[in-house]
Every structure is written in structure tokens, then in C-alpha cells.
Design goal:
alpha/beta; Rossmann fold; four-stranded mixed sheet; binds NADP nicotinamide-adenine-dinucleotide phosphate
């Protein structure tokens, strides 16, 4: 639906707001905070967002399409229990939304850098 609009942009960008709970690498690594997470639907849907990111990034090399993990942020989804304010969670989203045409695509990052898929 948004494709024609994106293709009219001189620097088209898509930022998929994913979660570290969608990381298969972290979910299988006992050393991570994500390992002990008990829910099923949320991590599975975040993993699906990651796969969609990869597939779209390959299909549309002229568009920067990346997945990000904002960090545990105080929003409605967690009853405002997140460890950081929305402004901080938005940082990586805004950073990736401002990529130029030479920026990366098909990546999965948080504020500190790349995450294991
Ligand atoms: N907060 C965190 O700690 C955290 C950590 C990692 C990743 N994330 C990711 O960040 C993203 C944004 O979440 P958030 O923290 O900003 O949570 P939020 O404040 O609860 O916002 C979720 C948004 O999704 C919308 N939504 C929910 N179900 C929908 C549906 N079926 N169709 C259309 N819109 C729907 C809600 O709309 P209404 O307001 O109309 O209900 C709301 O605007 C999510 O993808 C989440 O997985 C959040």
C-alpha cells in the first residue's frame, strides 16, 4: 500500500519496530535476559517481523528496510513498567528512519548495534 509513496522518495526508508524477544539467537542463549521469557505469541510475532524485514530488504534494494529493538520502554504494552522513557526508546527508531540512500538495509539493531537474528 505504501510502496508507490516510498518509491517517490529520494531516500525511502522503512523501520520495522521489532523486539529482542524475536531474536532466535538470544532466545536460545541462556546468558541473555530474553532466554527465560515465557510467552509464545509475542516472540513469534517479533521473529516474523524480522523475517519480513529480511525478505522485503532483499526484494526492494532501493529502499532501506531495517528492524530495530527499542529497548524496554515505558509504554502501554508493559503497563508503563519499562526501564526507560519513550524518548530513549525512540532514539534507534529515529536514527534508522533518517538513513540516507547509502545506509544499511536488512539489519536488526538496537541502540548499541547489531543483534543476533
Ligand atoms: N515497550 C517496550 O518495552 C518494547 C520493547 C521492545 C519492542 N517493542 C515494540 O514496540 C512496538 C510499539 O509498542 P509500544 O511499546 O509503543 O506499545 P503500545 O504503546 O502498547 O503501542 C502499541 C500500538 O500498537 C497498536 N496496535 C495494537 N494492536 C493493533 C492492531 N491489531 N492493529 C493496529 N494497531 C494495533 C496500538 O493501537 P491502539 O493504541 O489504538 O490500541 C498502539 O498504538 C511494538 O511492536 C512492540 O513489540 C516495545
Amino acid at each position: 500500500m505504501f510502496l508507490p509513496l516510498l518509491q517517490r522518495s529520494s531516500a525511502p526508508v522503512v523501520v520495522n519496530v521489532s523486539s529482542a524477544l524475536g531474536s532466535l539467537g538470544r532466545m536460545t542463549d541462556q546468558e541473555t535476559r530474553q532466554y527465560a521469557y515465557r510467552g509464545m505469541a509475542y516472540p513469534a510475532s517479533a521473529a516474523a517481523v524480522n523475517m519480513v524485514t529480511i525478505k522485503y530488504a532483499k526484494a526492494f534494494p532501493g529502499i532501506r528496510i531495517n528492524a530495530v529493538e527499542p529497548g524496554y520502554t515505558r509504554t502501554d504494552i508493559n503497563g508503563r513498567r519499562g526501564g526507560q522513557p519513550v524518548e530513549q526508546g525512540a532514539e534507534i527508531i529515529v536514527r534508522m528512519a533518517r538513513l540516507g540512500t547509502d545506509g544499511p538495509t536488512g539489519t536488526y539493531t538496537d541502540i548499541d548495534g547489531p543483534l543476533a537474528w
